[in-house]
Design goal:
Elements (H helix, E strand, L loop, with lengths): L1 H6 L5 E5 L10 H11 L1 E25 L10 E10 L4 E6 L1 H9 L6 E6 L5 E7 L15 E2 L7 E11 H9 L5 H5 L7 H17 L2 E5 L1 E5 L6 H10 L7 E5 L4 E3 L6 E3 L4 H4 L12 H14 L6 H13 L2 H17 L7 H10 L3 H10 L11 H28 L1
Parallel strand pairs: 1-10, 6-7, 10-11
Antiparallel strand pairs: 2-3, 2-5, 2-8, 2-9, 3-4, 5-6, 12-13
């Protein structure tokens, strides 16, 4: 999450788990392809003609039974809109649709608006500084802007940032962009993607679009199998490939679906392409600071001595165990009617909930008390052999005794 925040809003960031690939209703390579294309952004530049100015006056005339509404008993609206900038002023004739749009946006004299000439969409930018008065009754949400300069009609660049996957879905489904909200994307044909890649390449040559490489983060990457790793090798060679960040907590382990062992459960040819980030255990001061921040986030008051004890527990066991003890210790302090966690609360929680080391030690001590104990299988087999030998020796002595008699 911290990495996604640092990248900013325009940079695509996609996160997934390695086990997700096997639970989706599509092939493994299709799931990885969609994840890759979600992480590739396209910044599309579009020029539109707009009319931008400050509203001086709006006049609306209502006529009964015009030519268009004859026989329907309707009302025909006509009007005039006066817009100005710092250099010019113009009067525009308004039709019924434009009047309704101005009424919907609650446009009044003194507002700065823009009108898209292609679609007729009206956008209210704010209130002009020239119309602001101390005695005006304005809400806190009112935004004041400078009056536009230059001509009323301008060419304006509009930037749209979309991902390649969104373009794929819009062009491959009948309902278009609605499939993005329903999640019914399904498998997308390769021909559709080829056409989209060709079109994007044309836009890049014309200067209408730029590629925004994002980040694809795959957690538990050791859950992928050999086919997925082969696909990742091939996908990373593309010129539009995003930055791939993978995480795993495995050591030397088998690659899924094979008998081959490899570092982190990743094939060596893919490891050779990666830059491996080494990690080191937390120091005492770092654990102390993390636990202090955690107490502030959980709104838990803890004494300095209790925090020092919790830090020592985090050093000896694990940071996760120490973090989980914060809320439990807070509940123990609340039960004894105290607003602050003390050392006795930490000790009580430590005795109630065991960590991995103490749990393992407990199992080793009382292993004979549990059912299906695997450590005693060898001993039980030896015991069975001993009993069989004893039975055979008993039979021999009995037979010898019979012969003597």
């Amino acid at each position: 999450m911290g990495l996604a925040q640092e990248l900013g809003e325009d940079t695509p960031f996609t996160t997934m788990s390695g086990s997700e690939v096997f639970s989706l209703e599509m092939s493994k390579t299709e799931a990885l392809t969609q994840a890759f294309r979600k992480s590739i952004g396209i910044r599309i530049l579009e020029e539109t003609e707009v009319i931008e100015g400050e509203v001086v006056e709006i006049q609306v005339d209502t006529a009964i039974g015009g030519e268009k509404t004859k026989g329907k008993g309707g009302m025909e609206k006509t009007g005039r809109l006066t817009l100005c900038t710092t250099e010019m002023e113009t009067v525009y004739d308004l039709g019924t649709k434009m009047i309704d749009a101005l009424t919907k946006e609650k446009v009044s004299a003194g507002d700065v608006i823009t009108i898209d000439k292609a679609s007729g969409k009206i956008t209210k930018l704010g209130r002009s500084f020239t119309r602001s008065r101390d005695y005006d009754a304005m809400g806190s949400q009112t935004r004041f802007v400078q009056a536009p300069e230059g001509e009323l009609q301008k060419r304006k660049e509009v930037v749209h940032t979309v991902s390649l996957h969104e373009i794929d879905v819009i062009n491959s489904r009948q309902q278009g962009f609605l499939a993005l909200f329903t999640g019914d994307t399904g498998e997308i044909k390769g021909e559709v993607r080829e056409q989209i890649d060709h079109k994007v390449a044309e836009w890049r040559e014309e200067g209408r679009a730029t590629i925004v490489p994002g980040v694809l983060f795959i957690d538990e990457v050791h859950m992928l199998d050999m086919e997925c790793f082969s696909f990742l090798n091939r996908a990373l060679e593309s010129d539009m490939a995003p930055v791939l960040v993978i995480a795993t907590n495995r050591g030397i382990s088998k690659i899924r679906g094979t008998d081959y062992k490899s570092p982190h459960g990743i094939p060596l040819d893919l490891l050779d392409r990666l830059m491996i980030v080494s990690t080191v255990p937390y120091e005492r001061e770092e654990i102390h600071q993390i636990l202090k921040v955690r107490c502030e986030e959980e709104d838990v008051e803890m004494s300095d001595d209790a925090l020092e004890l919790l830090t020592r527990i985090g050093m000896e066991t694990s940071l996760r165990y120490a973090i989980q003890m914060v809320i439990a210790a807070s509940l123990a302090a609340e039960k004894r009617k105290s607003s602050e966690v003390e050392i006795e609360d930490i000790k009580r929680v430590y005795t109630l909930f065991v960590d991995v080391k103490r749990s393992t030690q407990f199992l080793m001590e009382y292993q004979n008390e549990f059912m299906f104990n695997e450590l005693n299988e060898g001993g039980s087999e030896n015991d069975d052999d001993d009993t069989e030998e004893n039975e055979e020796s008993d039979k021999e002595t009995n037979s010898n005794a019979m012969d003597e008699s």
